[in-house]
Structures are given as structure tokens and as C-alpha cells.
Design a protein that fits this description.
Helix 3 (73-87) crosses helix 4. The protein has one domain (51-249): Rossmann fold (3-Layer(aba) Sandwich). The chain has helices at residues 51-58, 68-71, 73-87, 105-112, 124-133, 169-178, 219-228, and strands spanning 24-29, 32-36, 43-45, 95-99, 116-121, 138-141, 154-160, 180-191, 215-216, 232-237, 243-249. By secondary structure, the protein is α/β, with parallel strands linked by helices. Helix 6 links the parallel strand 7 and strand 8. The protein has a 7-stranded mixed β-sheet with strand order 6-5-4-7-8-11-10. A 4-stranded antiparallel β-sheet has the order 1-2-3-9, with no helix packed on it. It contains 7 helices and 11 strands.
Length: 251
């Protein structure tokens, strides 16, 4: 269970979001130790999960596309179309990338709106599903870091429920910023640890899932991370569930 013990077996690294000084120990869950940044409020694992564990967790995240996630494909596509209907009010067209595209639903919704639409996901099973069901989209098995910025840049990037999984989030956000065209936008969603509807006991919150979720943002920490990479907040959408929905822009 989560405790509020004081740990003396190591020093917390600088905050992954704002780069501030080492944060204070926050607690522990099973074998995972958390720290809290005193400047931006990010809560993060230290140590972070290593490459072998990351590979294991995301090599077939949806059990060969047999989980309920893919069983609700029609619902997922309807939701993607609703989100895209809001985003096109800000970015009416151009080149679109969905980071962590899973089954390709947002890519298809963007393509229907006239975007040149791409999706990337480290899970090859998801990419196979997306390619088979939405063959007019362009899909790649990999991460945002594998896209060369001098080859492909985007008018609109979506990163939904992905950033909380990323051990090197500074590099990750830098890659997003580099792949945005000047004036381009990125729409990010992630669980909000500071949300007023989050369960009082952290372990009762479905957003708390170490080591899969290794970062726990609040709006201030996501803004701080974005600012380090030259991205400014355009708007933050209201979220009834404990989450952040933030639209950022590259100048």
C-alpha cells in the first residue's frame, strides 16, 4: 500500500517536468518509490522502469487486439470524431500525427477531415490492427523519437493518455516540439493527480498504476514541461473525470 515514509537510500533526481531541484520523497507502492517536485508538483517514479520492462509492457498491450478496447471499436471511432470536430476549429487541416495511436481511430477521424494522417505506436499488434482496419491511414510501429523532424513535421499532433507512461519525458516533449511546424498545435491528455474528483486514497484511483504510469501530472507540471520546449498553452478543456486536456502551440 502507499505510505508516507521517509526514504534515505537515495537522492531524488531533478524533476523530469520542470528541471527543478530534487524533489522530496512522496511515498511507495510495492517496489516503486515516488518523489514530488516542490516547484511544479509533478510526482514521479525513481528509479524509472527500464527498457526491458517497457518492451514487455507494450509489445502486445491489448492481448492480440482481443480486449474490450478493440471490441468497442465503433464507440472509439465515434469518440475520435467528436474530438477531431473540436480540434479542427483550431487547426482546420494539414498533416496530423497521433502518438500512441493504438487501433488508429484518431488517424481515421483526422483523415476523414482531410488531414494527411499518420499514427505511431510501439505496440506492433495495434499497428497491424490499425493498418488492416484503416488502410488509408499511414502507420508506423515506433515512438515519436523515431520520426526525423527534417523529414516530417506536423500541423497537429495528438498525444492522448501516453505521456504518463514515458520514462524520459524531457526527451519525449522535445521530440514533439521538434516535429511541430511553426504555429503547429499539440493536444495532450493525461490523468490529473490534483483533480478534485480524484479518490482521496491514491491507490483507489484508476490513474495510479506504477510502473506503467511513471509520471503523475497536474496542470502546473505539464505547463512547466511544455514551456521548457517553447510550447505555450492555448487552452485547457474542462475534464469531469480526473484528467488534463491541454492544447499547446509552437510559436
Amino acid at each position: 500500500m502507499l505510505t508516507q515514509e521517509t526514504y534515505t537510500n537515495g537522492v531524488s533526481p531533478p524533476c523530469p517536468a520542470c528541471g527543478g531541484p530534487a524533489g522530496a520523497p512522496y511515498g511507495a507502492h510495492k517496489d516503486w518509490i515516488l518523489h514530488e517536485c516542490s516547484q511544479c508538483g509533478l510526482i514521479y517514479l525513481d528509479p524509472m522502469p527500464g527498457p526491458a520492462l517497457i518492451n514487455y509492457m507494450y509489445s502486445d498491450a491489448y492481448e492480440d487486439a482481443t480486449t474490450s478496447y478493440f471490441a468497442k471499436a465503433a464507440k472509439k471511432l465515434r469518440h475520435a470524431r467528436r474530438v477531431m470536430a473540436l480540434l479542427v476549429r483550431v487547426v482546420p487541416g494539414g498533416r496530423f500525427l497521433d502518438i500512441g495511436c493504438n487501433g488508429g481511430f484518431m488517424v481515421e477521424a483526422a483523415r476523414e477531415r482531410g488531414f494527411e494522417a499518420y499514427g505511431a505506436d510501439p505496440d506492433p499488434v495495434s499497428i497491424r490492427y490499425a493498418s488492416a482496419h484503416f488502410p488509408l491511414g499511414r502507420f508506423a510501429a515506433g515512438t515519436i523519437e523515431t520520426f526525423a523532424p527534417e523529414v516530417l513535421q506536423f500541423d497537429l499532433i495528438q498525444c492522448s493518455e501516453v505521456i504518463e507512461h514515458v520514462p524520459d519525458v524531457d526527451r519525449f516533449m522535445g521530440a514533439i516540439a521538434a516535429r511541430l511546424k511553426p504555429g503547429g498545435h499539440v493536444y495532450i491528455t493525461t490523468p490529473d493527480i490534483s483533480h478534485w474528483r480524484r479518490p482521496r486514497k491514491l491507490i483507489d484511483w484508476d490513474g495510479f498504476a506504477p510502473p506503467a504510469h511513471c509520471l503523475y501530472f497536474r496542470p502546473a507540471s505539464l505547463k512547466a514541461l511544455a514551456a521548457r520546449h517553447g510550447l505555450s498553452v492555448v487552452r485547457a478543456r474542462f475534464a469531469w473525470k480526473p484528467g488534463i486536456k491541454m492544447l499547446l502551440k509552437r510559436p
